[in-house]
Design a protein that fits this description.
single chain; alpha+beta; six-stranded mixed sheet; four-stranded mixed sheet; globular
Length: about 350
């Protein structure tokens, strides 16, 4: 983000005044040598650490509905990036934000920045720069974190015989979207909980760092379990068998799975996306360490299957039979879903 306006210039509006009002904060520590206000940021990584970088974009009408609450958008654009760092076992440190906005709406920006900075404070992240421009609403955030040299958890480390695990529960975010779109109904409490999972995901940063030296491979579930596990298997040159009955889910989704809306429930559970949970592999000899990581961070973890040598993903139904067809995970260039 460019240099904030000088108060003596009389520039009460415009890009630099907007940045000064909504996105300029004092740095949290001395790692930020130069932050918002110069042509580029200067930061000092911790000794012995490697940088981990990630970027995500959210486009109105594609990733969120027009009229979406700006405070939740501020939370989510940072949360999805934090989830990427969590999947690498990295500690988040600094962020860059680029915004395209249709107009200079102070109330919208105040709410957006409130959601962004609340989550940033929770995870010790400094916003150190970015850009703003006029255009269709588009939110893009780049995040930088640190991991001890050689300790990043990659997608390609799973080996035959490893257990396959997932954190939290799956499917509620898509179930919340289905409720918002009128494709299903939920009671008041369940609807609120599922919509919250969609709009305000909880990145599993503490669990990710706790799994350093434990998980052999890991990634976050952003586009749906089947699609994301497929990415892990491709880079690991392995296959997996997943047990449908072992997949952790909410009571609301479990009721859908056992009833007339089973097809929707399977789509949510296996391919819904926006869960931002961690799916990871680990040696069976490390089961207690995985369980301890879950206990210590307050995030439930469930063993959902195993890594096998034969390529491909097999999901067994509740009777132990391989499902003939799996729901298709989200693809930006195949399916339109706000």
């Amino acid at each position: 983000m460019g240099r904030p306006a000088d108060e003596t210039s009389g520039e009460a509006h415009g890009e630099f005044a907007l940045i000064a009002r909504h996105f300029t904060r004092p740095p949290r520590d001395r790692s930020v040598r130069v932050g918002v206000g110069d042509d580029a940021a200067v930061v000092a990584p911790s000794p012995g650490c490697e940088l981990v970088l990630a970027v995500d974009m959210m486009v109105e009408g594609r990733h969120f509905l027009p009229g979406a609450d700006p405070e939740t958008l501020g939370h989510k654009i940072l949360a999805v990036n934090l989830s990427d760092l969590a999947a690498m076992g990295a500690r988040p440190r600094w962020a860059l934000l680029a915004l395209a906005l249709p107009d200079e709406d102070d109330a919208w920006l105040a709410a957006f920045s409130r959601g962004l900075f609340a989550l940033a404070a929770e995870h010790g992240v400094d916003l150190v720069g970015g850009d703003t421009t006029r255009g269709p609403r588009n939110l893009c955030l780049t995040i930088a974190g640190e991991v001890p040299a050689g300790a990043a958890i990659l997608r390609g480390g799973a080996r035959a015989g490893d257990d396959l695990w997932v954190s939290g529960t799956l499917g509620d975010a898509m179930l919340g979207l289905a409720a918002l779109e009128g494709r299903t109904t939920l009671d008041g409490a369940a609807r609120a909980a599922c919509v919250a999972r969609l709009e305000r995901p909880s990145p599993r940063v503490a669990l990710g760092t706790a799994l350093r030296g434990v998980a052999s491979s890991m990634l976050d579930v952003s586009d749906g379990l089947t699609g994301d596990v497929a990415h892990l298997l491709e880079l690991s040159k392995a296959g997996a068998v997943v047990e449908l009955a072992a997949l952790p889910r909410s009571e609301a989704l479990d009721r859908k799975l056992a009833g007339a809306e089973r097809s929707l429930a399977l789509q949510c559970l296996l391919a819904g996306g926006d869960d931002y949970e961690l799916v990871f592999s680990a040696s069976p000899t490390l089961r207690e360490r995985v369980a301890a990581a879950g206990r210590d961070t307050g995030v439930p973890v469930a063993r959902i299957g195993r890594i096998v040598a034969k390529d491909g993903l097999v999901v067994n139904d509740e009777q132990g039979a391989a499902m003939a067809a799996l729901p298709r995970a989200f693809d930006h260039f195949a399916v339109r879903r706000p």
